[in-house]
Amino acid sequence: MAEQRADVIIIGGGMVGLALAIGLADAGLEVTVVEAREPPAWQRDHVSNRVSAVTPASRRILERLGAWEAIAAGRVSPFEAIRAWDAAGHPGVTFDAADRGEPCLGYIIENPLIQDALRQAAGRRHRVSLYCPVGVEELDVGADSATVRLDDGRRLRGRLLVGADGASSLVRRHAGIGVAEHDYGQRGIVATVATEQHHGATARQRFLPAGPLALLPLADGRCSLVWSATAERARELEAMDEAAFNTALSGASEEVLGRVTASGDRAAFPLRRLHARAYVAPRVALVGDAAHVIHPLAGQGVNLGFLDAAALVDVLAAAREADRDIGGVGALRRYARWRRGDNAFMQRAMDGFQWLFSNDDPVRGILRNLGLSVTDRLAPAKALFVDHALGRRGELPSLARG
User: Fold this and answer.
1) Is residue 103 part of a domain?
2) Tally of domains in the chain
3) Domain-terminating residue out of 215, 241, 271
4) What CATH code is carried by the domain that includes residue 199?
5) Do 73 and 244 touch, CB atoms closer than 8 A?
């Protein structure tokens, strides 16, 4: 079978891998995407329990990639405020988009809808070839190119190999890149829930000793639940029937939206932090969960991945314009310097929140109350948080800029 050539081979056709492929194709590069599994299609008559809190910066990326129109035609729930409080009785703090002159802080969108829209957009690019479902049989990275042998016998060759293949990245392992990893000892439970009161376009998060509980507003008035709990407590919650689970959730959320009246299918996944010790190697780059995994309490995972993709597009487009090797270490190091520090900062911030809030230590309780009180009363502190939520902080890639 003839060898098929491309400028860039991306292993992983999820949201981040597809966003990267489209951006690179628009920059004039030939791209091949390899995905092992056919993703579940978005269903108009069923709300998925896997959602993302998409920032305005990520929306701009999706708009410029030609995916936002299809997303907006599906189901999108803008949220105008975030309210956070703890289990120790402090009234908490509220962050409002209006305080920064913005219509919303972000959008709750089902992952399958984002994926579908990106696949449609990729299908409109003649420079993108998508192989799915097909697995990788063998990887070989040489001095001048990377070769991929697929399990259907096809061979691919490119100047750069990108790992967008998740936390257990085959590309990362093959490149010999290690990780710093931490198991939080928690599981995240996700479900779609109905409550007595409407969410009012506000995302709510209560910090419990065992982990945070988030109620994220959905377009139909229900909420998407993300409940982090110890592994033991999570198993108890997973085993409950619907009535018992609704009662437990009503209590844990302090009935902030009244009683929970219904809950859909539940799923759970282990929570961990992971950070690749390097983002690049000769002819190899990592993006998204292949490079970093963070706690979901701030909902930033996919947004960091989209920024990775957009930054790599900028770096490779500049290398191409300057007639430099897009797989060379010189070009790739700029991407690594750009993104690794920002992602590490976000991981440290999430770990700080986890340390401060997910416990019943009275000393940390005093610190929590002080921090929440100061933040709620200090306009610059609230503005800083909102700017991070909006994606205004740091050096933004061109696709993400306003």
Assistant:
1) no
2) 2
3) 271
4) 3.30.9.10
5) no
Residues facing residue 191 across a β-bridge? 225
d(CA 223, CA 49): 10
Q: What average pLDDT does the chain have?
A: 89
Q: Which pLDDT belongs to residue 102?
A: 82
Band (pLDDT 50/70/90 cuts) for residue 97 is confident
Domain stop point among 271, 305, 330: 271
Element holding 50 (H helix, E strand):
none
* DSSP secondary structure of 320-379: HHTT--TTSHHHHHHHHHHHHHHHHHHHHHHHHHHHHHSS--HHHHHHHHHHHHHHHH-H
Q: Which residue has the tokens 């962050």?
A: 95
- % of the chain with per-residue pLDDT over 90: 71
* Alpha carbon distance 272, 350 (integer Å): 11
* pLDDT single digits (tens) 280-337: 999 999 999 999 998 776 667 799 999 999 999 999 999 999 999 999 988 899 999 9
Give kind and range of the element (H or E) at residue 208.
strand 202-208
Q: How far apart are CA 379 and CA 93, in angstroms?
A: 12
Asked if residue 348 has pLDDT above 90, the reply is no
- The two tokens of residue 199 are 């969410």
∠78-81-85 over CA atoms, to 5°?
Answer: 135
Q: Whole domain around residue 255: which residue ranges?
A: 184-271
- In this prediction, what percent of the chain has a pLDDT beyond 70? 86
CATH number of the domain that residue 10 is part of:
3.50.50.60
3-state secondary structure of 244: helix
User: Is the sign of the CA dihedral 56, 60, 61, 63 positive or negative?
Assistant: positive
Evaluate whether residue 31 is within a structural domain.
Answer: yes
Give the lowest-confidence range in 84-93, 155-164, 296-305, 309-318: 84-93
Choose among 63, 70, 98, 96: nearest CA to 82. 96
